[in-house]
Amino acid sequence: MAQQDEFVFLPLGGSGEIGMNLNLFGYGPPHNRKWIIVDIGVTFGDLATPGVEIIMPDTEFIEEYTDNLLGIVLTHAHEDHMGALARLWPRLKCPVYATPFTMYLVKDRLGEFGLIDDVELHEMPLKSRFELGPFDLEYVTITHSIPEPNGLAIRTPAGLVFHTGDWKIDEEPQIGESIDTEALEQIRDEGVLAMICDSTNALSPGRAGSEGDVREELIKLVGEYKGRGVAVASFASNVARLESIMLAAKENERVVCLVGRSMRRMVGAARSVGILSDIGPIIDEDEAQALPSGNVLYLCTGSQGESRAALSRIANGERRSVKFHKGDVVIFSSKVIPGNEKGIFRLQNALAEDGVEIVTEKDRPIHVSGHPYQDELKQMYEWVKPHIAVPVHGERRHLIEHARLAKSWGVKHAMDPHNGEMIKLSRDGAEVVDIVPHGRLHEDSGIIVSAANEGIRLRRKMAYAGHISVSLVYNSKGKIISGPEPRISGFPDGRNGEYMDELLDLVADTAEAAFKKIPSKARQDEDLVEERLRSKVKKTIANKTDKRAVVEITAHLI
After folding, report:
1. Which CATH superfamily is 211-359 part of?
2. Residue 443 pLDDT > 90, yes or no?
3. Secondary structure letter of residue 66 according to DSSP
4. Under DSSP, is residue 473 helix (H, G, I), strand (E, B) or coil?
5. With 0-12 CB in 10 A as exposed, 13-18 as middle and 19+ as buried, what is 489?
6. Which CATH code, of 3.50.50.60, 3.10.20.580, 3.40.50.620, 2.60.120.10, is assigned to 466-557?
């Protein structure tokens, strides 16, 4: 029997986590679906993955269907929505669609990776409508914490899905238009089969607040520090916030100095599309040095305590041309992203140690979220009235609560998806029809590997349990010529190094005793010798230290 056309949604990243968003939409019979990717983002490494800074969704599934992959459509330019494009495009090799601000940053990133001449790019006007195979796509203007945020209406013969992207309701967004409620009501009147919706603040009652209120407070706050050095840390991508900070400087007779590569990059992107045109002068760090500190406002990256970002480097004295002094003030116009607490508090403590005053959003209303609180979610459901609610962009608790709220607001069907679940969308509701390969890719030393890669696994294990290596040279008669020579890393030295000496002796004695127990004939097999010694050393160290260290044995028969 001929298979019927189906409309499916498949998240490979961003469902059950905040960040690393990658969503697939498919239409057609199961054996020959056409696909589009909506957003392709990254998240950042943590202590669980030492040395890994960039983490991306695993695209193994869609790599098998690149002949049917019609394009990558980007909703906006945040790293968790477009940061993996240049890294993963060589695996996908399909056209890319984005509005002007996002496309500027796409080109910038592709240029860094030497791909700008290889990728078919389509810069789409705001509110544009275009077709990719069976998909009729329309950009819908929304508000968020970056220029040109878009929802995406996806029409197919099986129905219309509205993918919100990241959004909030801001009556005074400062940059760009307010939410296009007329477009939302129009798609509602067509009939919305499903809404794929941001869940970041689904646990928070009320509303997120407006950038207009933040602007007023920043102008007032900077004015309270006349004659003192002022620096403001913020998310570089929040261009409306950058404009507010720059206007606060202008209103208080300060010039702005941008500190940090991503800050300069975002300002360049904004200016390329006609934003930030009336903000006063911007000077470089050397020019700022020549001016009294009371006449400069430093606008810095590093609000999340990132060790290599501008603010941390200034606090650590690693930035030659920018220094903070006792009595200066650093304003954090940002929130603490969960997981970044230690880095942020370490940075703030370093600043406080130098006599720098710190002001955060806990002290003054100088930050609002770019994601919807519960009252805003309810309003969106009233505008769109979807038949099915599919929460994304959130941890499990966010998705579960969002689905519960949607049902309470009258949505007939709601589900909280997991990455890798292929969900058929129809008038009968949402049904998981397949579970596909999914997971994480790590960028390590410029190489992209699976999170399950042996090198990554061993590094993670070494970080928690240490590393031991033993070398041994013996002859054909079974006599030890050299060694066992142990090397140990990642264990405490103890007072005067006695504990390390004790471990080294224990490893050497264990390896030698294990070698002597191997029958003479078996010693001719170096691999067998290495495995016997490795097993014994691992067990002995585990009994001694409660750590399952990575153990390497090198045995040479001469």
Report:
1. Metallo-hydrolase/oxidoreductase (3.40.50.10710)
2. no
3. G
4. strand
5. exposed
6. 3.10.20.580
> pLDDT of 522-536, one tens digit each?
888 889 989 999 999
Pairing of strands 129-132, 135-141: antiparallel
Which residues make Cβ contacts (< 8 Å) with residue 372, sequence separation at least 6?
167, 168, 169, 198, 200, 201, 208, 380
277, containing H or E segment: none
Structural element, H or E, at residue 299: strand 296-300
Distance, CA of 478 to CA of 459 (rounded, Å): 34
Q: What is the DSSP letter of 148?
A: S
Taking phi first (over 0 means left), then psi (-120 to 50 degrees means alpha), and beta for anything else, what does residue 45 get? beta
Nearest alpha-carbon partner for 7 in 106, 133, 130, 105: 133
- The burial of 448, by beta-carbon neighbours within 10 Å (0-12 exposed, 13-18 middle, 19 or more buried), is given as middle
Burial code of 396-435, b = ≥16 C-beta within 10 A, e = fewer? Answer: eebbbbbbebbeebebebbbbbebbbbbbbbeeebeeeee
The CATH classification of domain 6-206+369-450, taken from the options 3.40.50.10420, 3.90.25.10, 3.60.15.10, 3.90.580.10: 3.60.15.10
- CA 356, 362, 364 angle in degrees (round to 5)? 80
Mean pLDDT, to the nearest integer, of 450-479?
A: 80
What is the pLDDT averaged over residues 99-122? 96
- For tokens 């601000």, the residue is 101
